[in-house]
Amino acid sequence: MPVVVFHRNGEAYRGEVKENTNLVVRAGIKQFPFPHLRYECGMGKCARCACRVLSGGDQLPPPNWKEKKQLGERLEAGYRLACQLWIEHDIELEQDELPVEA
């Protein structure tokens, strides 16, 4: 099972998830072990779930049109929308303390 390491507010959270897991879906149904994941719409419209990928990004599919629209140049800095990612491999993510504005 994939291991997710999630950094937020100076703390690191680590947990295993089933393959093909969406972190925002799991957080929304309170079945995800990282309580500090910031999210809102879950549909790629608000970018509140934007995270910087620290490792494992090479295993992710290319950004979709929603990520390109919401993140723009931040894609080059390693940001992705957690709501648009289905985790199939180990990944390490960091979410800024303040919301990333589009």
Automatic annotation (TrEMBL):
The 2Fe-2S ferredoxin-type domain, residue ranges: 2-99
Superkingdom in the source lineage: Bacteria
Record CDD domains: fer2 (cd00207)
Coiled-coil ranges (or none): none
A Pfam family annotated for this UniProt entry: Fer2
GO terms, molecular function: iron-sulfur cluster binding
PROSITE patterns: 2FE2S_FER_2
InterPro entries associated with the record: 2Fe-2S_ferredoxin-like_sf, 2Fe-2S_ferredoxin-type, Beta-grasp_dom_sf
Name of the protein in its database record: Ferredoxin
Classification lineage: Bacteria, Pseudomonadati, Pseudomonadota, Betaproteobacteria, Burkholderiales
